[in-house]
Specification:
Layout (H helix, E strand, L loop, with lengths): L11 H12 L4 H13 L7 H13 L3 H13 L7 H9 L6
Length: 98
């Protein structure tokens, strides 16, 4: 995989490109992974709003890590207006996402 390496090399820009292809087809793992890259500015220009959008798409498909990261972003108001209710839902009952 291009994002993770066994020590040889990795190419986060190429990883972002492949994740984008899959995310556009609705793949929750790719949406989460691309969101993480945008949130952290790895292989792409940092864009918290795009990270929230991608995490939201994955969270609606019950991707637990996307729900977690989205909850954190709402909790601290990063890329979105702060909303502690969404943070609460993310941590209390992930089954309510959707």
């Amino acid at each position: 995989m291009y994002q993770f390496s066994d020590g040889e090399f990795y190419d986060l820009q190429k990883a972002a490109w492949f994740y984008r292809l899959s995310a556009n087809q609705g793949n929750a793992f790719a949406q989460f992974s691309l969101g993480w890259l945008y949130e952290n500015g790895e292989g792409v220009i940092t864009d918290k709003n795009e990270a929230v959008r991608l995490y939201s798409l994955a969270a609606k498909q019950k991707h637990a890590k996307a729900q977690h990261n989205l909850g954190i972003m709402y909790g601290i108001g990063e890329g979105v207006f702060q909303d502690l209710e969404i943070l609460y839902v993310a941590y209390s009952s992930r089954s309510e996402w959707g």
